[in-house]
Each structure stands twice: as structure tokens, then as C-alpha cells.
Amino acid sequence: MHSESQPPATVDEYIATFSPAVQSVLREVRKTIRAAASDAVEKISYRMPSYHGHGALVYFGGFKEHVGLYPPVNDEALKVASARYAGPKGNLRFPLSEPMPLGLITRLVKARIREDRAHAMRKGSK
Question: 71 preceded by cis ω (within 30°)?
């Protein structure tokens, strides 16, 4: 486990700080994100697991009653599909009391990859 002053160095360390039941859910979310973004670089950023392509794709975090997914949704169809999970700043909150919507998470991650690639193309990135 890490202390407040010492953030986890890896996603495994991050997940290990939660109860076994929450660890199981976080591992599911991680596996889903990694399957949808197989080329993404996984690291800890802002003290939580994050996945990066040309830029930041997605972050997830465990909380007392939910799993948070960031950043905000930009795709209009996905905004509608994820509306019941919308948090106050556009982030998503998936209640731990319900099954994780893994199909929706996959769609969200793939949308973020498309946005990331389009942004990189506009900027002329490699």
C-alpha cells in the first residue's frame, strides 16, 4: 500500500490499495481498457491509472462507492448512452453496487482513441 505522500508506482500497486471486492472490479475495468486500447501506454498519472496514445486517452479511479472514468465524453451518442453515469464535471461515475458497464467503457475508450488520433493528425504529430 502507498501513503498519501507516496503515490503508487504501478497500476498493480494502485489496485492493491483497495478491498478485495473493489480490486476485482478495478482489474475488470483495467482489462477492458487495455483490450480496447492495446497500443496505449499504461502509467500512473494524477495518482491514478492512466492510458496514453498521442495524448491522454483515459484515466480511472476507485472511490468508496464508484469507479470514476475520465476525461469527459465528447461523442454525442456516447453522452446519451452514458448520461446516467455523468458526474458533476463531465466525468463518469459507475456505482460499485451495480455491474460495471464494460461494453460502454469499451465504446468510450475507442471514441477517445479516435479523438486522440484526429487531434494528433490536426497537430501534425507522428
Answer: yes
Classify 115 as helix, strand or coil. helix
- Cα–Cα distance, 54 to 120 (Å, whole number): 6
Joined grid coordinates for residue 17? 490499495
Angle separating helix axes 102-123 and 20-36, nearest 10 degrees = 40
Kindly state the average pLDDT of the residues 7-20: 95
Q: Is the omega angle on the peptide bond into residue 7 within 30 degrees of 0, that is, cis?
A: no
Per-residue pLDDT at 2 exceeds 80? no
pTM: 0.90
- Three-class DSSP category at 84: helix
C-alpha angle 35-81-86 in degrees, rounded to nearest 5: 95
What pLDDT sits at residue 71? 84
Strand order in the sheet with 92-95: 41-45, 48-52, 56-62, 66-70, 92-95
Neighbours of 37 (CB within 10 A): 21
The separation between the first and the last C-alpha atoms of the chain, rounded to the nearest angstrom, is 38
Q: How many CA atoms lie within 13 A of 48 on its CB side?
A: 16
